[in-house]
Predict the structure.
Amino acid sequence: MQTKIMSEKMFIAGKWQAGKETFDVVNPQNNEVIAKVPLASKDDMISAIEQADVAFQHLASWPVHERIRVLTSAANYLQEHHELFAETISLEGSKTITESRGEVSRAIQTIRISAEEARRLKGETINFDQKEGSENRVGYYYRFPIGVIGAITPFNDPLNLVAHKIGPAIAAGNPIVLKPASVTPLSAIMLAKAFDQAGIPKGFLSVITGAGREIGEVLVTHPAVKMVSFTGGLEAGKHIAHQAGLKKISMELGSNSPVIILNDACLTEAVASTVSGAFSAVGQNCIGVQRIYVEEAIYDTFLQKFIERTKELQVGDKMSEWTDMGPLIQEKEAIRVEEWVQEALMEGATLETGGTRDGAFYDPTVLTNVSHDSKVYYEEIFGPVVIIESIQNIQEAVKRANEVEYGLQAGIFTKNLDDAFYTVQKLHVGGVMVNDSSDYRIDEMPFGGVKGSGLGREGVKFSMEEMTEPKVVCFKLGNTWGM
């Protein structure tokens, strides 16, 4: 049965607008065209930015209660259309319908948290009399919105990562212009509909669809854009940082996440957690498990149980509730993963299971004996491939975990508090998950990494801090005050 092809518009400063040209949105599972979406021009992007700037100048003191109302109403819209959002995420992307439902629930929570944090964006009083001669001064600081936020989001979480840009921006009182991934723009368009229905002020939200090479540079370099918030790959992040100039930048640039399994770990929990962490969302997950280091005494047992669990995963139709893993986002990505694995095998790696491609599908794959010079070891694979290695002790595991350019999150399984705290202190990452895989996050926690994994932190409260600035207010009182 042929899928009905939708015709969508982009949302520019409160208006739904078609483009002179369109591009196709394709279901990666069967290459069916599911929608035609406007291919925005540079002029479209400039118009969105300029209208956002004008809106901000006219509504710079947008009341907090109105921000809360808009965010709450948008979250309610998502809740009412939960299944439609989930089906859209699955159709345009890689996630199974079960994974997509989970993403919708998280996006609702992200927007609700944004509404809650809007009322908590506060300053504090300053004791100016701590300085000799300032006894007659009193004051405080408060946080103010910085202006237009430019946001660029990836394909792997096409709704919740968009919510993580829009929610905090609106909560902080900033207009935002967002360019979603070209392969998964439909979820972002639907979220714009939610905010349109919620009555967001005109100009405070635009969702512009199109090619990054055509409109991305405009968004990054326009002087009215005061901050760029980007989630994507390391090389793209470096390019944007060079382009942006003197403005705030927040970047989450992926990872190559390690998990350490020590002798005293609960193997049942460790296997279940790391298999899920390695292969959920087809491994297209910035905090997904890519490298597992297992102490020698339990290595063989862990490896056997991990392979057995991996072979139980069901690969197939992403719209089926029985499916564990669907296709990668495009066949070219599956081909790239296949090439990296083949390269590792030629360099001496052992294929324990998987390694088979069918179009955009790639079986969950386990490698051992991987050379540390192999691309699959030191780069972000962003696919369903995991490396398992034996280590002598925790010191060796931490040394190996730290030897790549990335540092987003890591995991460790142990009952020993000393060992847990050793990894907390020694791992060069933005987060350490104890007795869990690297693939754990709640939407309120500070989220981000070190080294090549990015700049700044997301998580609603922390994004809002990035999207505001403190302003100090000091009153010098009369000389007789207090005398």
The chain has two domains: 6-254+449-470, 257-434. The chain has a mean pLDDT of 96. The two ends are 86 Å apart (CA to CA).
